[in-house]
Amino acid sequence: MAAPFLTGCAGPLSALAPEGPAARGAVRLWWIMLAGGGAIFLVVSAVLMLAILRPAALRAFGPRRIILWGGLVIPTIILAALVTAALALGERLLATPRPPEDAPLRIEAVARQWVWEFRYPGGAVTFDRLHMPAGRDVDFTVTSADVIHSFWIPRLGGKIDAIPGHETVVRLRADRPGVYGGVCAEFCGTGHAAMAFTVEAHEEVGFAAALAGEVEE
Amino acid sequence: MSGRELLLLAAGFTLWAVAFVALYAMLSVGCRFGWDGIDLAGGVTVQRAQLVTLFLAFLAVGAWLAVHLRTGPRAPFLSRAAYLAALAGLGSIVFSFAAVFALSECV
Ligand SMILES: [Cu+2]
Q1: Looking at the whole model, is its pTM more than 0.90?
Q2: Could you give the CA distance from residue B29 to residue B9 in angstroms, rounded to a whole number?
Q3: Which residue in A83, A87, A95 is closest to B107 by CB distance?
Q4: What whole-number distance in Å separates Cα of residue A123 and Cα of residue A119?
Q5: Is B95 within 8 Å of A87 when comparing Cβ atoms?
C-alpha cells in the first residue's frame, strides 16, 4: 500500500537516498524529525480523545499542569534535542580548512541563466555535466554570473546559494561511482525549472580520463 | 487598556528579534572582514569576542527588562503577561544565541 508513496522517494534527485556523508546527516535528521513529529501527533491525538471521551481524567490533571507540561516543559525538551542534533550535524557539513597535504579537490561552479559551468584544476571546463572523483571530499566553490541561484545535488548533500560577487563553499563526497542529479534550487527566472545538471562520480582513473575527454571536445 | 501596556507586552520578544538581527548581521560583517582570522588572546578571535559581547549585552538588557517589568501574581493581567513574556524572551535569548560560545565562526 505504501508503494505508490515510496516510489517518489527514489530516483536521481532523491534526498532520501543518500550517497555521501553530508546527505546521510541530513537524512538522519529528517528521520529524527519525522519520528519526533509522529510521536507528538500521536500524543496530542490521544490527549484530544481523552478530552472528548474522558474529560474528567483531564480535569483531574488540572489546567495549570497541562499548560506547564504541554506548553513549556515537553516542547522545550523536544526543541532542545532537535536544535542540538541540527547544530551537531551542521558543524560536520562545514568546509573547514585542512592542511595542504589532505586538502580536498576544488571544483568551481559558476551559475548563470540558465546553465552551470564547472571549472576543474588543470583548466578543463564542462557545462551542465559535473565530473567528480568518488570516495574523497570535494570542495565546490560556488558563485553566480547574474542572479542568485542555488547549487544542489540532493543525493550528496545540502544546497548552497550561488551569489553574484561572492563565493560560497560546500564540501561534498560521493561514496561510490555513479550518476546523480543536480538542480538549481533557487528560482532564477523563466529557465529555472530546466536548470539541471548531471553529476558523474568516477573512480580516480576514470575521473582523469573523463576530464581529458572533455578538454578535447 | 493603554498603548503602553501593549508595547510592554511585546517588549521581551522584540528584544529577542533585535538580538537575532544584530547577531546575524555582525556574524556576516565579521566574516566578510576576516575577523575570525584575528587572534585576540588564548585562541579567542575578534569575531568570537564581538559576538559573545553582543550576546552578553542583549542578555543584560533582557534581564534588566524582566526586573523592570516584574510584578506579583495579583497584578493586572496585561502587566503580569508582559512580565512573563519578558522572562520567556530572556530564556529564548539564551536558548537561541548561547551557541555563539561554541559554534564555528566562518567558513
Ligand atoms: Cu538558477
Answers
A1: no
A2: 32
A3: A95
A4: 7
A5: no
